[in-house]
Amino acid sequence: MKSYQITEWSHELFQLQVNSEGLYIDATMGNGHDTLFLCELAGESGKVLAFDVQEKAIMCTTKLLKEHNVENRAKLYLDSHENMDEYAEAGSVDGIYFNFGYLPGGDHNLATKADTSVKAIEKGLELLKKGGVMALCIYSGGDTGFEEKNRILEYLKKLNSRKYVVIVNSYYNRENNPPIPAFIVKKG
Q: Using one digit for the tens of pLDDT, what is the confidence trace for 116-126?
């Protein structure tokens, strides 16, 4: 049996729901692994918009995408995920991917925050096409604290069930505040 990390498992579930060769958003670019995944999913005719507030994220992602010859499929923005609605039209995005927390290997003081993350999720839901999916990898504990996790989960719980299907998973037998993978599907 394959041993899954949260992002691998989340990628597989995300890929089952979205159309390939579409428009995708990596709301939290980080080191570029999710951006690369989305670029591969986008294929030659799709597009990826990726966001981060750190220059280091842009540099790491640019390098990774060039190594895999997919840099022409993505536009990288040095901007907060809460501004993604300035770069895409409502109802135009097939899938959005969030990986909350801080940049691995980066400054832990520059982590995603509850207020901007909830705003970004809200704006992202407007950008999604009907049938589109949003994946959220929610980290807590240690440097990132619990406020963001709690606020995101509370927000998800209040989403209109007539408009969205929300699935929140847990690593039930893991200690030390494991990440929480969650998915939102915008009903058609």
A: 889 999 999 99
